[in-house]
Amino acid sequence: SNFNNGFNAFSNPAMLSKIKINEYALSYFPMSLDRSIQVISISRPLPPAAGISLSYFRVGTDDIKFTDDSNNIIGYGDHSESYAMISFGTNINKLSIGINLKAIFHNLTKDFSSSGIGFDIGGNYEINNTLSFGFLCKDINSKYLWNDINNKVYEEDLPNIYSIGITKKMNYLSIFTQYESI
């Protein structure tokens, strides 16, 4: 339910309808144990009341040490999950709606990887100038398709995530609340 400069496609694609100028977002978040999150997003308005975005998200770890029974290093590997996304949002009076179309990728090692598709649907309703309500349904029909060692396809469904949120804006303060369910 809150406008998030540069990152609206990730938080709620319906908010893309509210962008006024081109927005660029880049984030690199290093974490312990060689883990990191990388994000890039480019959004632009589509007058009179819409917006579009291209985005990429990756979370993973690099240089995982593989060891034998004696703790000798026998190799290195990487693990990551990522998705490329095209997003669209439009506005009809006080209601904004949006959709994300995602190509998802999971690389367990260089020998085991998977891909799939999915989508998200979001909405935002402005009750008045200071109060808005938003919702997001993530990973609808999202699934990975894996090949096992016998070259049979295994399907892994991703759980749907449902979010609702409320934003209340006051003079110099904004209050946000969000609830998620899987």
Alpha-carbon Rg, integer: 19 Å
Beta-strand fraction estimate:
over 45%
Helix content: under 10%
Please trace the helix and strand order, writing H or E for each element. Answer: HEEEEEEEEEEE
Poorly predicted ranges: none
If helices are DSSP runs of H or I spanning 4 or more residues, what is the number of helices?
1
Question: How many angstroms does the end-to-end distance come to?
Answer: 19 Å
Arrangement of strands in the largest sheet: 1-2-3-4-5-6-7-10-11
Q: Can you summarize the main beta sheet?
A: 9 strands, antiparallel
Structural class by secondary-structure content = mainly beta
What form results from the Cα inertia axes? elongated
Beta strands, count? 11
Query: What do the pLDDT scores average to?
Result: 90
Comma- or semicolon-separated keywords:
mainly beta, single chain, 11 strands
Give a brief outline of the structure:
The chain is mostly beta strands. The protein is elongated and about 65 Å long. The protein is 2% helix and 68% strand.
